[in-house]
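The passage that follows is intended for readers who have already worked through the single-chain material. We present the inputs for a multi-component assembly, then the predicted structure in tokenized form, and finally a short commentary. You are encouraged to pause after the input and sketch how you expect the pieces to fit together before reading on.
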Amino acid sequence: MGKGFLTNVFRLYYDGFRNMTLGRTLWIIILVKLFVIFVVLKVFFFPNHIKENSTAGEEDEYVAGEMIKRGIDH
Amino acid sequence: MNFLSAIDLGTIEWSRAQFALTAIYHWLFVPLTLGLAVVMAVMETKYYLTKDDFWKRTAMFWQRLFGVNFAMGVATGIILEFEFGTNWSNYSWFVGDIFGAPLAIEGIVAFFMESTFVAVMFFGWKKVSPGFHLAATWLTGLGATLSAWWILVANAWMQYPVGCEFNPDTMRNEMVSFADVALSPFAIDKFCHTVISAWIIGGVFTVAVSCWYLLKKREEKMALASVKIGAIVGLIASIGAAATGHHSAQRVAEVQPMKLAAMEALYNGGESQSLTVISLLNPFTQPDYEKGEEAPLKIAVPYGLSILATNSLGGYVPGVNDILNGYTRPNGIRELSADEKIERGQLAIQALADYRAAKKDGADKAQLNALLDKLKVNMPYFGYGYIRDKSELVPPIPINFYAFRVMVGVGCLLILFFMVVLFFCYKRDISRPAWLQKTAIVMVPLAYLASECGWLVAEFGRQPWTIQDMLPTVASVSNVNSGSVVITFFIFLALFTTMLAVEINIMLKQISKGA
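Having made your guess, compare it with the prediction:
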């Protein structure tokens, strides 16, 4: 893979991003959306339930406990 | 102790509602991405073949609309994975590797193919050769379609779990055959039907936008050229969706007969069954299927359901009561009754509990093997062990019945619509009839409604299962407070509504600007 190829790839993205019009608005929307999804929602509202309720390496114990209890106790 | 005292019932319903909301919203973007990908690629192919700048401008215009939709849809599917981990953690753990592989491949394909070729498509008009650019445009669509393939493989596995084995030590399903999972006949049918139906959305959208220009007497050359391509793509896709839909129905009849019975509101089945076109089924309550009374004012096509399900006039189709009480398939295989399956499911759960307890207590190998054998022989009915009453095995019949009819009805209407549009394109003058142009605009929400109804049938029809026969929703849901699920439901509702309003606003502005 020649240096020329890499330069062309770089120029493609560099010029593309620099000359965006509508794309600029869309990128802002994408970045805001990703921030809300990954930083706000994931961190504050969507914890990993099993990790929070079991010790590392014993997740199967927690799941087994939940599933067997629900199956047998009713 | 009843497990319902430990699990808030509202958690199940709100978690389902939240998942449905997210999936329905996600599905507003996906079909337009897949459909417009074909339309814009066809247009660029015309440019490549004719070297006429008009086609370049036309292709660029549709690529811009594709870009708006693509950007707004990016990452909306990831929220579904968050919900797996928080609201559906038992399910998420239980499916184990099966979901991991397709979703990982989907992520890689989506990231590398789409990010590479989308960039070339948007940034590369003056940087790469026309042939390379055309290839990038087609590969953008192919990348999106391949992404859809892996997501649909994961969904199909939940409807028809194959290629896996349950490991009671890890409490996870482990993949034993990647080929069986990736090339499951259910996945192939689902992929063909879903992707082809997405092309219809692309076709309708193209025709509608073009007709809007014709109504406004703007961009007429581009609109006249685009409307033909949109209608051709739409007609081919509509006919393809009907054919693949027929095939999908046969697969459902084979592996999810309860779903088909619910779609048809068929309570007592038999041979030579008719297909209900419409009847006055009460849309608000689950019918009393045990009585077997048909809904009033039923209009039906004789033998239609037997043909749909079995390709034979006299084909046997079981009804809800047959499935609950047990029946014999035409090939002689006896299907257990619901009560028998529930008993077998309870044996499986008990064997799992005994096996894990015995292993902890240091039981010998012979004892463990005996328990494993007991689990293995009853594992196909594992999920039935969570069912308290056999009525829980019947999906909501009115939703399935009406959603199926909306999907098929609008699908048939679309075939007629595209034929009329093409007739006016080639034999009359499509730029004149305002009624047809206005109809085209109305067809966009109708086509979306049909598309979403397809998913309603697929997902409501498999209730109570998250994984068919293996795991019901009551066992899949996390032991979380329903209050937190309610809060995130309304956060999503507000977020999705805002994002949809933003997309429609940007899209309309771009359409208003023209080529």
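Commentary: Residues 3-72 of chain A form one domain. The interface with chain B takes residues 8, 11-13, 15-17, 22-23, 25-27, 29-30, 33-34, 36-37, 41-42, 45-50, 53, 59-60, 63-64, 66-74 of chain A (CB under 8 Å). How closely did your sketch match?
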